[in-house]
Amino acid sequence: MKKFISILLTLLLTLSLFTACSSKTEEPAKQEPAAEAPAAEKPAEATGVLPAIAKEDIKIGVIHIGNPADGSGYTFAHDQGIVGMQKALGLDDSQIIRKNNVNDTDPTATETAILECIEEGANIIFGTSWGYMDTMEALAEEYPEVIFSHGTGYKGNNANFNNYFGRIYQARYLSGIAAGLKTKSNLIGYVAAMGQDNSEVTGGVNAFAMGVNSVNPDAKVYVKVTNSWFSPEEETNAAKALLAEGCDVIAQHCDTPNPQLEAEKAGAFGVGYNSDMSKDAPKATLTSAVWNWSAYYTWAVEHAINGTWTGENYYGGMKEGLVDIAPLNESIVAEGTKEAIEAARASMLDGSFNVFDGVIETNDGKTVGEEGKTLDDATITGNIKWYYKTVTVK
C-alpha cells in the first residue's frame, strides 16, 4: 500500500511540473508596439535625490514678505516669476498657494505660513526673503519629502533644502553707468536695506559704485541704511535725507518704489530695483536693476517633475536670463548711456569682464583682490564686508 501511494504522489508531481512548464512557454497575445514619444517629450533621466513628482500632482507654496498686489518692488518681482513659471509649465491656478505679508523677522509667523502650505498639499515651497532661512532649514529636516527652496541666504542640505540667488551685481554695475553719466552734482544716493556686514547688499552697493566710477571718476556714492528689508517709511526717509545731502540721483536696494517717488518729487533722478520702476516714477527712473525670477522657478519645478532635483544651490546671472536692467528711459538718460552700457554688457557676457576683477581699492585705504583674478562666488555672496573707494555711509 505504501508503495502504491508513493507511485501515485510521483505521478501527481510530474503532472504538476508539466502543467507549470506549459504555462510558462505559452505565447502571449500579440500587441501593437507603442509609438515612441518624440525626444522633446521624453522626461529627463531621474537622477535626483527625491522622487519625480507628476506635473498634475505638483503643488507650490510661496511665502512672500509683502503683497504682490502692490504692483512693484521685491514681492511683485518674485510673484511675476511664479506667474511666468506657471505659464511656462502649464500649471493650474489651484496648484499655487500664496502666503503674503509674512514677517520674515517672526519665526512663528514663518512656520505657520509654511505649515499651512504643507497642510494644503504643497510639495515644493519657495521662501522669498532672507529671514525665512532658519525656519525653512528646520522644517526641511522635519518634512524630508517636501522641497524647501530659499531665496537669498546661504544654507542648504544638498537634499530637500537649497538656496537661490543671482549675480544681481552685474545689473547693479550697468545701472551705475546710467547714474554716473546723469549726475550733475557728482553725488549719488543709495538707500540700502542692510549695512556693511551684509554681503548681498554691500556687494550690490560696490558694484553700482564701480559702474559709476567707470564713466565718472569724480562721482561719490552716499549710502543710507534702513536696517530693514521692507520698510516703506524708512525707505522714504532715507531717500529724503540723501536728497538733502545734495544727491541728484537716488539708487536703492530696498523693496518699495518710494525712493524713486521721492526723487521725482524733488526733481531728481533715480535707479530702481527688483522690477521696472519707471511705471512708478516715469519722470525720474533712468532704469532699474531687475530680476526675472521665472528663470529659476521654472528650472526648479522642472527638476522636481523630471526627478532630477539634487538640492544644489542656484546662482544665475545675465547669461541665464535671471538678472538684467529694465529698458532705459530714453527721454531722460544722458547721451551715450546706451552705448556705454551695451559695451559693458557684452564684456560680461563674453567673460572678459566680471565686475570684481583685479585689485580693488576700498574706502578705508586698503585693497582686496589680486591682479589677473576675480573674486570667487563664495566671497561675493558671503564675504564682501567692505565698501568701494568712492562710497561713504551717511
TrEMBL record:
Gene3D superfamilies to which the protein is assigned, alphabetical: 3.40.50.2300
Pfam short name (any one): Bmp
Domain ABC transporter substrate-binding protein PnrA-like: 68-343
Keyword Signal (UniProt): yes
GO cellular component: plasma membrane
Ranges that cross the membrane: none
UniProt keyword annotations, A-Z: Signal
Record-given protein name: Nucleoside-binding protein
Range of residues in the leader sequence: 1-20
Superkingdom of origin organism: Bacteria
